Structure formats: structure tokens, C-alpha cells
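Weekly puzzle thread! Below is a chain. First person to post its structure in C-alpha cell form gets bragging rights.
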Amino acid sequence: MGVPKSRVSSTRRDKRRAHWRARIARGMNLSPCPHCGRPRLPHHACRYCGYYGERRVMDVERRRPEE
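Winning reply:
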């Protein structure tokens, strides 16, 4: 198993994590949710229905339009 040669500073770590929204905006790595069909990140629970695979793992409130 690989072992890092030196500690990753918080600045370097945060710079690496800063661009995930841009990757999503370009349409990369999105797959349809098998339960509701909306796009979601692979290996993540669907934020719209709360399912991960066949299991419900989050409680998601249904948002109703304000009248």
C-alpha cells in the first residue's frame, strides 16, 4: 500500500478540492439515478430522492412551490 512521503498542507489540499463544481458544470462524471432518473455523481446518494442503489439512505423533504 502506498504511503505519502510528506504531509499534504491544508492549502494544497483545498486547492485540489476547489474545482469539483466546475467539473460537474462541464457535465463530467454524471450518471442517472436508478430510482428517479435525475443526474447524480457516481458513488454518491441521490440528493433528490435520497437513494443509494436500492437503499434509501437520506430523508429528503419534498419541496412544494410556495402559493
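Puzzle host: Confirmed. Bonus trivia for everyone else. The beta strands are 31-32, 39-40, 51-52, 55-56.
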